[in-house]
Write a structure and sequence with these properties.
Length: 279
């Protein structure tokens, strides 16, 4: 059974902690091969190969490879409880393990297709932990001045959300002065300087890949259940929700369970959601 001890932050107490990212990467690869995730990876790299062979344009070898991988809670519990433990304890390290694992699988596929390996910055493997039930030991309670550095959950009422904003995942640049050099940038639209002639480069506009996101304000359910309470100020929790992290419709006043973690660029009270579902 999946349990979380809030004091020790152990997801599966009988298992030892995993400290090796290489070991975790192997666990991710093993899990992918045991489930449908391997076919998703092969399908994305297969579309990349087919697109290049159809166009025969060199710039298409710089195109992004984007996919969403759903790590099902029940499958993890059954096939890889160690991996489930590490997702809960170290979501950022797990994210890197997923990235390098998928990159290795894509490289193997491209090698079999007689193509050169792509740059790792061309790979955008978005992961979600789907089906994780409400777990009291994972609840994020900022008023206790105790912030979980691993996976956390927020359950409450959607009080507000921002309009959709655009996040640039990857842009491809080329030098038009004869150098024939290319550059890949992530999360930036500023023209880089050519490493050969130091002139500003031009962008392949059709190869830019973006994703939308919103900022959510989540109030605790008690703020709605006891609206006549005086002398109490309910402070919402701020969540950044990217497009790949949810499938349901967002409605003000509806209840949601959000699983997330603190990303490196997140502010003190902002979580990066890796999955949202209605409750």
């Amino acid at each position: 059974m999946f349990t979380v001890d809030a004091r020790s932050e152990l997801a599966v107490p009988t298992e030892t902690r995993l400290n090796s990212q290489f070991h975790e990467q192997k666990l991710v690869e093993q899990f992918c091969r045991q489930t449908q995730l391997l076919k998703l990876v092969e399908g994305s790299s297969g579309r990349f190969v087919a697109n290049y062979r159809k166009s025969q344009r060199p710039e298409d070898l710089l195109a992004p490879i984007q996919l969403r991988l759903d790590f099902e809670y029940r499958q993890l519990l059954e096939k890889s409880p160690k991996l489930l433990q590490h997702i809960v304890e170290e979501p950022l390290q797990f994210e890197q393990a997923v990235r390098y694992c998928v990159y290795g699988l894509v490289r193997s596929h491209l090698k079999a297709a007689s193509l050169k390996p792509v740059d790792i910055n061309q790979l955008h493997a978005h992961w979600r932990l789907v089906g994780l039930p409400y777990t009291p030991g994972l609840q994020f309670e900022s008023q206790d001045q105790s912030l979980r550095l691993g996976l956390a959950q927020v359950q409450g009422i959607l009080a507000a959300f921002t309009p959709q904003e655009t996040l640039v995942l990857q842009s491809i640049w080329y030098c038009g002065s004869g150098c024939m050099r290319n550059a890949i940038q992530t999360s930036s639209t500023d023209a880089p300087l050519c490493s050969g002639c130091s002139r500003p480069m031009s962008e392949y506009q059709k190869l830019r890949i973006t994703e939308t996101f919103r900022l959510l304000a989540i109030l605790p359910s008690s703020a709605v259940q006891t609206p006549r309470t005086t002398g109490c100020l309910h402070r919402p929790k701020l969540i950044r929700l990217r497009a790949h992290a949810y499938d349901c419709e967002l409605k003000l006043g509806s209840s949601y369970l959000i699983t997330g973690y603190f990303a490196g660029s997140a502010s003190t009270y902002q979580l990066e959601a890796c999955h949202l579902k209605s409750t």
